[in-house]
Amino acid sequence: MSLYLVGGVVRDLLLRRENWDLDLTLEGDGIAFARLVADRYGAGLAVFERFATARLVLPNRLKIDIASTRRESYVKPAALPDVAAASLQEDLYRRDFTINAMAIQLNPATFGELHDPYGGQRDLKAKTIRVLHGGSFFDDPTRIFRAIRFTQRFGFSLEPSTRGLLEEAAATNLIQQLSGPRLCNEIFLLLGERDPRKPIKRLAFLRLLRFLHPRLRYTNKGERIVAVLPRALAWWKKQCPDHGVERPLVYLMAILSKAGPAVLRSVTQRLQLSSLQSKAVEWAGRRTDRLVQVLEQTKDMRPAQVYRLLADLPDDALVLLVAKGLAMRKVGGGHRLTRRLSRFLKHDRLATTILRGEDLKRLGLEPGPQFKTILDRLLDARLNGRVRTESDERAFVHRVAQKPG
């Protein structure tokens, strides 16, 4: 049986770029072959019978996708394809762009032989993105996002007829037919590029943000925040090296900077975001704007006041807050905000009291709602430097408990 390395990894080998996203295709039963490989190398195996594909996870955590060579047909635009066994040439023809429609043979007798029936090498040299047929974007509108990603990632240009086909497809409502997870995957892949600023502008130019929400616009303010996000992310990494954030989500939140609560809820529902992602997106719009205003413009704030404002924010929202502060610096602001954020992250965020609820019981206090009030006030006192030791805390609790109400 003939076995080939296919797709993006072949493109990147020819471009001398690193890529460990390994796709193999077999002229034969790819799933049966995958089972043999899994048995031999002790790999984990997931099988997707409908698409004649399997995914291997080797003991060293390397992932390899193995598929049978196949053709695809679409019952309707944007639907998942039906597949049937086919030759290698047909398999390559079903792919998105010529630069991804090449294969390298892996059988020993012909190891390294390149199969390029549609001019992928030619287009790599010409730095051109070209679809293989006129119906490509209509069959699979996720290719619209992929084309935008690749033009930015590689510095390539769309071949003129491909550009026309993309703009024609973008003007339709085909993308609306994509499921939430498929749309979310493409949006996050695009926003996860090393520098997604130009791709975001392209999305806005083609009016593709309307598929997140009809009223969503990429405003000048959103563009300013996106422009400083690389600096905000670098600042965050320096301040909190052990707390990573989801970069695509932060970029999405920046795009949503001027959105109201109803739009934010609608976007999270459309993309079917997780509960944690949805919680972060809730802070994308005006809620963080209000925080920026308070943290930047209020002259005298005790550390406990800053803590109460920021304690419930997810990390992604804190990064967005940093970006909004950096965006303000062009008009002479943002310094007070980032200074307060830095103190919160380095000193106050993980602050705790020595005394706990059990200690309050031992001090003779009756359990009840007042426990939370007392402990909150105790934490504020510690943050503000009014108490430092356990005996300080006990004295403070005693004073608070003696006061009526």
Q: Tell me the total number of β-strands.
A: 11
Strand content: 5-15%
**What is the mean predicted local confidence, pLDDT?**
91
Structural class: alpha+beta
Query: How are the strands ordered across the major sheet?
Result: 3-4-5-2-1-8-9
What is the CATH superfamily label of the largest domain? Answer: cca-adding enzyme, domain 2
Bulk shape: elongated
Give the radius of gyration: 27 Å
How many helical stretches?
20
Supply the CATH architecture of the largest domain. Answer: Orthogonal Bundle
Largest sheet: 7 strands, mixed
CATH topology of the largest domain: cca-adding enzyme, domain 2
For this entry, give a set of tags.
Hydrophobic Seed Protein; seven-stranded mixed sheet; 11 strands; 4 domains; alpha+beta; 52% helix; 405 residues; Beta Polymerase, domain 2; cca-adding enzyme, domain 2; two-stranded antiparallel sheet
Descriptive report:
There is one protein chain. The protein has helices spanning 8-15, 30-41, 88-93, 120-126, 136-139, 142-154, 160-170, 180-191, 197-205, 220-239, 247-255, 261-271, 275-281, 286-297, 303-310, 315-328, 335-348, 357-362, 370-383, 390-402, and strands spanning 3-6, 22-26, 44-48, 53-57, 63-68, 70-73, 82-85, 103-105, 114-115, 128-129, 157-158. The protein is of the alpha+beta class. The protein has four domains: 3-126, 2-Layer Sandwich (Beta Polymerase, domain 2); 128-211, Hydrophobic Seed Protein (Orthogonal Bundle); 214-351, cca-adding enzyme, domain 2 (Orthogonal Bundle); 357-402, no CATH class. The strands form three sheets. The protein has a seven-stranded mixed β-sheet. A two-stranded antiparallel sheet has the order 6-7. Helix 8 crosses helix 11 (247-255), helix 11 packs across helix 16 and helix 15 (303-310) crosses helix 17. The chain is elongated and about 85 Å long. The termini are far apart.
